[in-house]
Amino acid sequence: MKGIILLILFVLYSSLYSDDYRAYRIFDKNGQEVIFENILEGANNSEVVLFGEHHTNPICHWLQLELVKSLHTSKEGNIIIGSEIFEADDQIIINEYMDSLISYTRFKGEAKLWKSFKTDYKPIFDFAFDNNLKFIATNVPRRYASMVAKKGYSILDSITPAAKSFISPAPYLIDTTLPGYSKMAEMFGPEMSHKASFMMRAQALKDQTMAHNIYINLEQKKTFIHINGAYHNLNYEGIIWYLKQKNKDMNILSIVTVSQENVNELEKKNIGLGDFIIAIPNSMTTTY
């Protein structure tokens, strides 16, 4: 009898207080709460899945891993993984490691790994290795983005053909009216409009190169799941805009992460940012 009373008290306590301590909630683009299986269903029917994360958020990295594992099962292994955390000139090193030609120690010593790689991204990377999956380095090498940030697109005419192989082919496109880019310009103010123009183009070069590397690695009947900062697919802009320039009918699923003080409902400003919006308390601990 005592055990039953304790169980009832626990259920009542949980129903009263659990909402205050939810680590995350998932919403659709209309702001209606959904479950993880809804994301999985959408991913199963998509050519490309963009998982827009907050880089230091542990909930993002856990959900990414669970989505990769679940999608691998439901698609019977027909998935490809890619991420902005690797720059395109690291692809050779990644391939050599995935093909067991070099040790992990050698890979770790030569690839340009983010400082959070071990805790945040290695579990997915290991899953790809263990299941013989392609892992694509999609980002532009930062040295070229830095060049553009200082001197604009014209500087790319000066680099070698070998260097250009790590960048999306010309023409280098940008729609400066897109909110993501225009807000960046606003941060600099009119007195720094020249610098803002170059910074926008550096950001666009990243988006265009990631979209290019996703596109050229697509395979029929396979889903490409890409991990990137939420900025790169927020409001269906960034990478998505460039993918749509290549194929306006491409089936793309956009997942966006937001931080809120309370995750019981999606804040109005966050409705419609993606097909699915993962709301995480802004008090959540970070990985570094």
Give the SSE map:
Elements: H1 2-17, E1 25-28, E2 33-34, H2 36-44, E3 48-53, H3 58-74, E4 79-87, H4 91-98, H5 104-110, H6 117-130, E5 135-139, H7 142-151, H8 161-164, H9 179-188, H10 193-215, E6 223-229, H11 239-246, E7 252-260, E8 276-281
Parallel strand pairs: 3-6, 3-7, 4-5, 4-6, 7-8
Antiparallel strand pairs: 1-2, 1-8
Helix pairs in contact: 2-3, 3-6, 7-10, 9-10, 10-11
Task: Work out the helicity level.
Answer: 40-55%
Overall strand count: 8
What is the CATH C level class of the domain at 25-138 and 209-281, in words?
A: Alpha Beta
Q: How would the global form be characterised?
A: globular
From the N-terminal CA to the C-terminal CA, the straight-line distance is 47 Å
Give a short account of the largest sheet: 8 strands, mixed
Mean pLDDT: 92
- Low-pLDDT segments: 4-17
CATH topology of the domain at 25-138 and 209-281: Rossmann fold
The CATH level-2 architecture of the domain at 25-138 and 209-281 is identified as 3-Layer(aba) Sandwich
| Beta-strand content | 15-25%
The SS-based structural class is alpha/beta
Biggest β-sheet: strands ordered side by side in the sheet: 2-1-8-7-3-6-4-5
Structural Rg: 21 Å
How many helical elements? 11
Secondary-structure element series:
HEEHEHEHHHEHHHHEHEE
